[in-house]
Amino acid sequence: MKTATHRFDALMDITARPPIVFVRGEGSYLWDDSGKRYLDFMQGWAVNCLGHAPALISEALAAQSRLLLTPSPAFYNAPSLELAKALTYQSCFDQVFFANSGAEANEGAIKLARRYGDIFRGGAFEIITFDGAFHGRTLATMSASGKKAFDVLFEPKVPGFPRAQLNDLESVQRLINSNTVAVMLEPIQGEAGVWPASDLFLRKLRELTRAHGLLLIVDEIQTGIGRTGKLFAHQHAGIEPDIMTLGKGIGGGVPLAALLATRHVSCFVHGDQGGTYNGNPLMCAVGLAVLREVGTVGFLKSVTDTGLYLESELQRLSARHGLGEVRGKGLLLALDLKLPIAAELVAQAFEAGLLLNAPRPDTLRLMPALNVTHAEIAEMIDGLDRVLTRIGAARCVA
Ligand code: PLP
Question: How far apart, in whole angstroms, are the C-alpha atoms of residue 22 and residue 233?
């Protein structure tokens, strides 16, 4: 018989977590088990695109759960067919494979590119990726990522991911050889600190990949489903990639992800790809509800407008406190703090009931719900202002 230990001890300790438990969420707010309320500008890392616990998601879950949970991925089900149809109608892609996490969708994209290389490119398998990229935490997606901290983990890595520099076309050109099958990138590198690929770079990259017969894979796990003010971020550049992955926002808080490809590139053969929960109706019903909401008239325009408001408020705050630039698009923005104070800032904001994210020691990343209100933004800016003032005063004294 095991004796009771600390209440958190039975969970693997995979990251530093504050010693509180969240029990409820509504829109832009979360409550912990002591009743304390937090204003959430992380939203599960850009996952809850419609905020916490929106009624349309609980209704979709309840309705679908009364009908059918999982027949088996070896049979068709209505929500996955409908969601695949809706996604392909609204994009340049023709076919979809549904997965449970972003990493799994990206793993699928890597496999699809390798299968394509096998069939059409004489066994080419290398996928050019980028310094600073983040594609997930499976072995292949860690290998494809350009996150410095991953370089020494879980060796040996999966081979075949030479790295170029974002917004530097020549660095891509130099890596192309007869083994190259694809180039893979995030339209905005989120985990690296919100670094956008320029529209010009994306267009040139599309030309370059076409000229060499290479696939262009966009990882829109963080940027997709309206986050940047268009349904997909690559649409700002007016390009048509061959493969796209979605995650986070498409499930609005439930585990749903997708791998999309054009018809010619959809070349998996039976046995290549699968997974027990792929395309399960419960999650796909939620995906449909989310996509319908994001597709309502004026929704994306309001993301753009709200993003511009958040950006201008951050710029005013930056000027007031002598901070750096504001980067990003729509409601995926970063504030350069110019000093490595992000961890301290996030900790103090947390105490004050404000949830913020710091992807780098000197950078804050803002990724609120897409329906965040101006009043909630003003409340966040007020809280951030107070914390910055306190930290600034403490640094002056020190
Ligand atoms: N790709 C990008 C661009 C991401 O931002 C993330 C997660 O942060 C992933 C892939 C991995 O997604 P998941 O954590 O759902 O596996």
Answer: 31
* CB 107 near ligand 1, within 6 Å: no
Asked if 248 is an active-site residue, the reply is yes
C-alpha pair distances (Å), 313 with each of 90, 133, 303, 365, 389: 32, 28, 15, 14, 16
User: Which of 359, 339, 355 has the alpha carbon at shortest distance from 347?
Assistant: 355
Which residue lies with its CA nearest to atom 13 of ligand 1? 102
Cβ of 132 less than 6 Å from ligand 1: no
Domain chopping of the chain, boundaries: 22-54+297-397, 55-294
Q: Give the Cα separation of 218 and 240 in Å (integer).
A: 10
Q: Which residues contact 8 (CB under 8 A, 6 or more apart)?
A: 17, 19
Name residues whose C-beta falls within 8 Å of residue 93's C-beta, 6 or more positions apart in sequence: 87, 243, 244, 260, 261, 262
Ligand 1 contact, 221 CB (< 6 A): yes
Q: What is the pLDDT of residue 5?
A: 66
CATH 3.40.50.740 fits 22-54+297-397, yes or no: no
Q: Residue 2: is its pLDDT beyond 90?
A: no
Q: List phi, psi (to 5°) of 163.
A: -115, 130
With 0.85 as the threshold, say if the pTM is over it.
yes
Q: What is the mean pLDDT of the chain?
A: 96
For residue 6, what pLDDT is reported?
A: 80
Atom of ligand 1 nearest to the CA of 133: 3
pLDDT at 335 over 80: yes
Average confidence (pLDDT) over 85-108 = 98
Digit-coded pLDDT (tens) for 263-301? 999 999 999 999 999 999 999 999 999 999 999 999 999
Hey, how many other C-beta atoms are within 10 angstroms of the C-beta on 321? 16
45 Cβ inside 6 Å of ligand 1: yes
**Rounded distance between C-alpha atoms, residue 137 and residue 104, angstroms:** 9
pLDDT above 80: residue 171: yes
Q: Verify whether residue 125 is a known catalytic residue.
A: no
Fold classification of 55-294 (topology level):
Aspartate Aminotransferase; domain 2 (3.40.640)
134 is a catalytic site residue? yes
Q: Which of 98, 134, 143 has the most ligand 1 atoms within 8 A of CB, as the residue to mutate?
A: 134
